[in-house]
From TrEMBL, chain B:
Family statement drawn from the similarity comment of this UniProt entry: Belongs to the binding-protein-dependent transport system permease family.
Organism: Mesorhizobium huakuii
Protein name in the entry: ABC transporter permease
Domain of life, per lineage: Bacteria
Protein location: Cell membrane
Main location: membrane
Entry keyword GTP-binding: no
Amino acid sequence: MMLLRRLPTFAAFAALTAFTFAGPSWATDKDVLVIDKAEDPPTADPGVEVSNNGYTLIFPAYERLVKYDGAKTEVIPELAESWTTAPDNLSWTFKLASGHMFDDGSPVDAAAVKYSFDRVKKLAAGPGDMFPTVKDVVVVDPQTVKFELSAPFAPFLSALATSAGSIINPKAQEHAVNGDDAKAWLAEHSAGSGAFKISAWERNQQITLDPNPHYAGKAPAFKQVIFKIVREMSSRRLQLENGDADLIDQVPVDQAEAMKSSAGVVIESNPSLYVVYLYLNNKKAPFDNPKVRQAISYAADYKGLVDGVMQGQAEQMRGAVPDGMWGHDPQGMQYSYDLEKAKQLLADAGVSNLHISFTYSQADSAWEPVGLALQASLAEIGVTMDMKNVADTTKRELVAKGDYDIATGAWTPDFADPFMFMNIWFDPTKMGAPGNRAFYENPKVTDLITQALATVDQKKREQLYIDAQKITNEDAPYVLLFQKNDIFAMRSSVKGYVYNPMLIQVYNIADMSKSE
Amino acid sequence: MSLISTILRRLVLLVFVVAGVAIITFTISHLIPGDPAQLIAGDKASAQTLAHVRQELGLDKPVTQQFVIYVKQLLSGDLGQSLRTRRPVAGDIALFLPATLELGIAALVMAIMIGVPLGVLSAIYKDGPVDQAARVVSVAGISMPVFWFGLALILLFYVKIPILPGSGRITLGIAAPPRITGFFLVDSLVAGDLKAFWSSLYHLILPAFVLAFANLGIITRQIRASMLDVLQEDYVRTARANGLSRSAVILRHALPNALIPSVTLLGLAFGDLLYGAVLTETIFAWPGMGSYVVSSIQTLDFPAIMGFTIVASLGYVLINLAVDLTYMVLDPQIRELG
């Protein structure tokens, strides 16, 4: 009737609107890079941020004293042109390169370095843990800065290459409110000397980066880089396939497989240092018996998990230090799927009718299938395992309190040093939440890793860590499952991307370009 | 009972509802094991760092004292700080709620614009082809999962026949209008930015339709039923006998009366729409409360979950009050019986 009579007008209007706006999509512009992310980064503040999602913004916006060399895990100079270490390893002196400037044009000097490290320490919000022994930062002259340590810390140089080591413009302090050290402002803005700066941030929607006009390096190819927040994987995939996004991250293995046939899309899959493993509660019977722990390690179907759950996008671990990091032992012992041996070990331990639980969350999609596979294997050797699915924070709390039998874990190193595995997983002073989640203690191992931490010579350290791994492999406090590949998908027009296993969700956008 | 006393009575009740919700959500959130400090300081934080963060958040105090502090803050309109976004929860809600409301209102308008005529037509041509078709649409709308339907429409109108955008609120490269209400359609008109207006409208079509479709069935069926009732009434027959045209009787006499019972339904439907918005927002990358709440729940971000629950229950009660008041105005009988 009246409404119906107006229908053609409405339809014509709708069609007109559609044609007006269905023009060429923005992402095909050569000067603009569009990256779809699954989650809005919590903050972009190097002093508080602890997630890879936040590092996506921090790395291109800030420079550090040293940086990872391309795809390698060794560090090379960035803001520092050279450095020296005192013979007692208690002080490090850095000479700053000239010409580096913050995005407001002011120079990066020793005072800025001091400001940044003092701030991280004062905020004590997580990134501060990267530099546990830094006592003081001293401005020697505008181009020279000295770090004084309370104890030698062998991975110090590597730690400087992390997000926590980003150098912030001291002028950011002008934005401080109620003594927050500019925490609120730096959460959504940047004040660095990196190739880009954050120019707009619409929460849960998109973040725009513009080039820093004072950047000391080569001017980037992109006039703008946009991070769009698209939670749903299917939506991210359609955006990429339709050319509205150039790159999408956090691609699950099944989607990666399906996208291999999409025209104009390239799947990047690189071995990462992200490991999936299980904690066994070493202080709780029967897991206080190494034989029982070994039995569980023999009951995991490693090949089945890598080929089935991970569709080949993973590699079984060999010792605690993953392949791709120095300190990894290529000759190290590896457990195999051997139920007979597992059964025998349980009999040797005098354990029967075992009833245990498997605590996991949905934070990693591999955990549930890993648990189900283990449950089936254990059932064959007479062990009953209950699956306990909880919220991720709940899982962490239960693990921290040691209130579990078997629990799931995932770990990535913060800096490229075996310290990140050996001196955390096996250190008896770090039991529970800080990292020794198996509540493991072996004085011989403690001794070896403590020595390694105080040694500067890398060759010697490597041997100490390999010796320690020989013991921990035998003791089996954890079930070492696999290290995952890092998968994402991009348009074939995107050039120059370099994967660094230390920089998950970080893109070298300053060196990337587009060919169409 | 007078209108004013009803409002007063309901507002007093409102205080109890909010207090109850605050107590329940606070208790639940503190019963679930989980250390919010670790969420902030990260998986590898040292014991000292965790202790420092706990102290900063006031989590080192006894639970009862934490509750007193929470209530005090609540009374001054402070919903605390989100653990995940590190921003005030009230600010986050103010930022994301308008996007959800804009989507919800657009969907409601769409559902009414399609549902009311469809309901009227199926009542007039009862058991005819229009009625049958409307029945199919209703059942489809109620039974099709929003998640699936949304993706199917994206596939159709964004990928296969690319005439509509598949995600977001506005075209990439077009600046969002300066924030006044947070409704892009309103703000862009106020700013006189027609480009932003059309782009926002254009981005609203698919998600609003998906959301509207789920509620279309209920509205259509309700209008049809009450229309059939009204069409049996004596006054309709009298009007026809007096020589009024069929369409005049339907539009001027029958429809207004048939709409009265639907007002209640619309109040409920709006609640449903906000609930359905959670999934719709996820699929369409719509930066509203839905995706905010999903992320908050996944990370057990208690202050955010509690803040949202309180605001949502407040909204629900107020919408119900508005519905009841509308009802009283429309139908004097209720005022007398009330």
